[in-house]
Prior knowledge:
There is one protein chain. It contains two helices and 48 strands. By secondary structure, it is mainly beta. It has five domains: 97 residues, Ubiquitin-like (UB roll), CATH 3.10.20; 83 residues, Immunoglobulin-like, CATH 2.60.40; 94 residues, Sandwich (Immunoglobulin-like); 133 residues, Immunoglobulin-like (Sandwich), CATH 2.60.40; 124 residues, Immunoglobulin-like. The strands form eleven sheets. It has a six-stranded antiparallel β-sheet with strand order 39-40-46-45-44-43, with no helix packed on it. A hairpin with a 2-residue loop joins β37 and β38.
Amino acid sequence: MWGTRYDWYDDIADPIKPSAASDSLLRSLLQSDMAQDMQLYSRPSAWANLNFRKEVNSDNGTDVVIDSLRLKLTYDFMRKVSQRSTLEVLVSQDGSTPYFTVDTRDINNRQDGRGAFRRIYPMGQTVTVQAQPRYGRWRFQKWTDRHGYDISGQDPTDPTRLSVFLYDDNVVMAQYVSADEELITLSGDVKTSGGTGVEGVTISFGNGQGSTTTDALGHYSKPLPFGWFGTVTPSKEGFSFNPSSRTYIPIVASRENQNFILIPTGTTSLAASKQEIDFGDTNTSDTFLVWNKGTGTMGYTITVIEGSTWFSVTPSSGSSSGLSDKQLHTVTVDHTEIPAGETRTGTIEIASYDGQILYVTVAARNNSVFSIMKCTFTPGPGRNRDSFSIYGYLNATADQIRNAASISFRLWSADRLVYGEDLPFDSRKFRGGVYHYNRKVTAEHGAVTEFQVDVNQHRFRIRGREVNLSGLDAPIVVDLIIGDFAGSAEAEESIINKGKPLSLEFMSGMADLLRVDRAAVVSKQGFDRLSLEGRIALRDNSVDLETMPIYLIWGSQSFTIPPETSRRRKGDVYTTRSTSDDGTITAQFDLEKCTFKITIRAETITPKSGRVIFGIALGTFNQMDEFDLP
Length: 630
């Protein structure tokens, strides 16, 4: 370390300059604030036999006496690089060493690992790790963080695979459980000869494993101990099955499609007590009976084949052994799912297991007091420049409105008051059941520009512009009070902006959001070209896109726009272009309109179709969007 080297010939002590390794070691021992920069690993150690020999120069006749020797150890030193991330893989069972496959070599050319290990990668890269499914008597269960909490990134089709986006140092743990506790699953379906699933069939399992029951689709599933053996037997009163049972030798893996066919007995005849049910505009519940007019036991299913959005039937299946065994079924209607002022009809299908079919027609109306039929919201060029238009159904009378002193209008989103205003009401202008209010506004003073209500047609319209709609998000709620009339209605995404998503400009400065509107991958001249367009809202609008790195995720690939790349800013529009080993990236972010356009040209870009995840990380913003490529 620090010291001097004495030269007896000229009697001079030369100072020894500390090496980088000595500097690192001393800072670590003294617990310096720079200790995090010390190198953690040096060259591998080795055993060595050291031989020392002393030779005397007979010319001067002086014999040097050696009292002691000091061995100098030198090791490598490298300061920590800020643009790199560490991936640390741990194993839940201390001391166990299952094999892990890693899809990418790290900066030190290391790849796969055994047991607990670390790898170092450039920041912003995505790495996929695959755990060994079985290791001795241990079986892989899932990936977690170092504390055992579930994490995202696991492949839904193969839970041993984990994709990790290295935005910072990451620690993941492979959880292994004893195979002695492992369960396997036996599953299948019970159907009629016509392919209809049969609900309520009891499936019994031998050797003390109990039973389970088929669901509405005729499906059953039963967890069993690893190595179970025995007999599986279906049963339902009045029916037989083909096969009558299934016998298994010890099972060491889950099995699917262990199916049975239900066989009715006797000569059945399907009957129902009603062919039509009219709920009007107030009734919400009614019943009907189903039974077997023939002999034997008849099973059947009930399906809503038209109108399933506004009414339902329970139970959805049953069985009858004769005239004295009639089954009761309940029809429930939700009038709010029917557009205001309209009538809807639907159909119930009753089908027996042996192919007989009957139909019941259902009718209902919605004469609700207040509902929204369509609405549009348009962001303006800047705050206080937004506009809106709301059109809906209003079941009010002239007497309720005539003596109103004012009109109260409120627009809500997720319990946030987005906009509200109280408008004057002049009863002298309320003629023939129609009231119309309008006024001009300026960019400095925005407000409701038009309000119209027609009690004869049961319609209303309200428009406004040059207003601030910050925080607007679907669904929205409108409250309206005119005199003795009060109504509150919700509008879902399907009727907002003709079903198109709301602009993220309304959420700028309030939340971090990302949405991809268009994406495509095209292969041409030996390269792939990815084009992306979409919307982006930043909670922190002070983000400096001119100096910070930008990380992009496409499926399992990652791309980085380093801060030293060429960037231009014009108002709130940032444009950058980067060329590296990853490829050529051109990106444009408009923070005022909350839009982005990104083009990536690289040798290979995958996936090119199907489900894909795209993500952007910059500063505190770290969001992803999942969508289907055409």
